[in-house]
């Protein structure tokens, strides 16, 4: 295990941008390219370079309900970005590498279960696509995602909200001060997966010291107890002290040490928009830490450790968060048991989701079957007006890969019943047990099966 | 009249080509202790019955520099590194006499840390005490700003003028500091012996009153005039395999099939790929002594297996090669070889089949197996090794990195159309390999000396790369390591940088006497990035590459079969 290399897949998408001046533009990984190529990272024996490939439409459908279909929501760039995480997943599971880092764009962690358009620079959730692939192909059940992007990973949270086998930990700048305005402590997961979503909203200007306090006293102990088969780092780099979109004080050394402690099996690049003064150094730091290379000589040109002292107020607040969330995690079993005992058929949740990039406002009603034997399955009624003025009303049924037979059968029969409801445009069934993804176009009365 | 000579590991081959014909050819065993001797022996054989004034060009491919490097020969050479921030210094383990200096440059060419004069002076004194006079200096991102490297070179000139100092930004401008440093180090170490060799060659030609221009074949399959070759010994490493590839291309000229070229020589087989009529380049640069360099090279794979690989019994089992003890038994050699096994079983009628049989029989007896079993066993092993090496080449090609969406979307699987056989033992092995792989094979009466033919008719290549950064007001040009200011006055467009690159290529072509090839140049890289801060565009970054690709000189119109 020790002697295997670290897999790196570098896909800067030098021919893709949301718009010419958008933070997600061609230039984003240019200086990172310069840095890692000049360092000769890919020539090192500790590193093995991998090549991108296109994800299949089915790989996307396993994680998302794309409205009206996958082709409408993804470009080739999204398929390459998502496909690249699958290359790293395969390399890891086939024993070629000890761990892997997909330095890819476009990013994905704001992308939710239902995708009507682009949210927070994301259309497709790369990590979710990869996790469903890992589960389907390699029968992995328990995973942990640690989202270290400065923004709350609301998309990933939404996708795994009801999944008791996916531990989602996100630390980020407090949602009262930053997009997307969520990720508060009391967001802890659905009724049957309570406690496996953990949010750590940090005060602005938190430094390496504060983040490592959270890591040592909250994240690592929780991981220890949860015992995931794999740890994924949703590796955003916008906590950096030079990021133009956020206000945190994290350094390249801090990121490197974080990855050394966390020892993720796979890291996937998310945000990070300080393209010149942070990304080249942070990406190097993560690579070096994952590959076990001494990163003592790595630093940003203007980095002065003494400038980055945690304020006593911040430290006080962080200690409070750690204490609260550690308790919540310890008590999660009790709360899930209480929810099950309510003896309700379905728990109903209403949501409104705003897509900032595409100015789409989506209304959702989500129902979770409160199953006695498993995490249940969920149905989502979603409606939104797309940018092209088309209004869609869709009904989505999502059957998890690890659910009981009764939930599986009920999901299928619900899909068949709904096909007769003319009030919807599309009915979708995500059947992960049979690895089949159905979509029924009501007006045309045609079915697509992936 | 064109002359090509390929000094290989086992044999030195030479041809004289004129108007679709091979007028003369020669083959001699290579004397690895005296390459010039083998070279001149072949040359003298070729020159019999030839009017010297009709010789238009002589092209040479030689293993000299490769041998110097792989046998760790050459004067003691210091490698002075200026790595700045990033990887730990102990990751740069490429030269026994390595020294580290303060100083740091970033990817935009900004100075992040200044050099320390006292440290430089101390180091120079130290080298003087140790009497090390060969020096390579390499700084991280010196390709974007070489002021630190030049400063060190300057102080050497003042304090220790006897030292010969090579700086990395002049040997290569591409990204990859370790490759650049290693290339500079190898250059510093071999340049003197390389020039001695060229001088002795020129003297021998002068003695023979030959005035034709001499070119040296490079690893990328192109030639360079001898004078231009003086400063870049490393360009000649792996020119042997490049000669093979160009030879394979020359005997199938005008076709654009996807082919694998196998040069099966005495003890090694070199394998390369031709995709749509163009040889495949190694994207990482030539690798020597387990280190990558910045030498542009074809993607070649060498395996220690050739027609003269000897068959032995070791313990109870058969061992094939990797060495050669002489020619095959059928040609009067003392031991059974790979060629003998093919000769006997397929009744190829090469030399004396009965000699092949007798020597093979001795091996079979020692192994206590029937003679035919032995031969099948040998052939099985050979075919397996060749097939494995070929599929490893494909795999390597499929794993070429891609950094743009369209490159990933347009990637096609490699469809092999044909095997081209060249080299001394190709006639023996290639038909059997082709039948086994169910792939068309191609052999030519020139196959045994196609490598020398490839050298004789290859045209010069030239690659110019320009990096431009309008915000930093900087541009750099490879080769030569020129760095300058773009000038802030105007707004630079991609077209302007392309013109700049094109002009540099023309100038360079002119100064090396290659002007007539400049119009063949093609752009292979055109990238531009907007530098955006906030919502404003502060500048543009450009990467432009233009090259004269490998090909054949105008006089070459194929070889009649
Ligand atoms: Zn972010
Ligand atoms: Zn159930």
Your description of this structure?
The complex is a heterodimer of chains A (450) and B (561). Chain A has helices at residues 30-38, 57-61, 70-73, 76-93, 126-138, 154-160, 208-226, 252-262, 279-291, 312-330, 332-340, 405-418; strands at 6-11, 47-50, 65-66, 99-104, 114-115, 143-147, 166-173, 197-202, 230-235, 266-269, 346-355, 360-369, 378-385, 391-399, 426-431, 436-441, 446-449. Chain A is of the alpha/beta class and 450 residues long. Chain A has two domains: 6-333, Histone deacetylase domain (Arginase, Chain A, 3-Layer(aba) Sandwich), CATH 3.40.800; 344-449, no CATH class. An eight-stranded parallel sheet of chain A has the order 2-1-4-10-9-6-7-8, sandwiched between helices. Chain A is globular and about 65 Å long. In chain B, 34% of the residues lie in helices and 25% in strands. Chain B has 15 helices and 27 strands. The chains are: A alpha/beta (450), B alpha/beta (561). Chains A and B meet through helix 1, helix 4 and helix 9 of A and helix 6, helix 12, strand 26 and strand 27 of B. Bound molecules: zinc ion (2 copies). One zinc ion binds at residues 371, 373-374, 376, 403-404, 406-407 of chain A.
What brief labels describe this structure?
heterodimer; A: 450 residues; alpha/beta; Arginase, Chain A; eight-stranded parallel beta sheet; seven-stranded mixed beta sheet; 31% helix; 23% strand; globular; B: 561 residues; Nucleotidyltransferase, domain 5; Rossmann fold; six-stranded mixed beta sheet; 15 helices; 27 strands; 25% strand; binds zinc ion
Inertia-based shape of chain A: globular
Number of structural units classed as domains of chain B: 4
Q: What would you say the CATH architecture of the largest domain in chain A is?
A: 3-Layer(aba) Sandwich
SSE sequence of chain A, one letter per element: EHEHEHHEEHEHEEHEHEHHHEEEEHEEE
Strand content of chain B: 15-25%
How many beta-strand elements of chain A? 17
Low-confidence region ranges of chain B: none
The CATH homologous superfamily of the largest domain in chain B corresponds to ATPase, nucleotide binding domain
Assign the CATH architecture of the largest domain in chain B.
Answer: 2-Layer Sandwich
Give a quick account of the main beta sheet of chain A: strands, pairing sense, barrel closure: 8 strands, parallel
Number of helices of chain B: 15
Number of helices of chain A: 12
Number of strands of chain B: 27
For the biggest β-sheet of chain B, the strand order reads 3-2-1-4-11-12
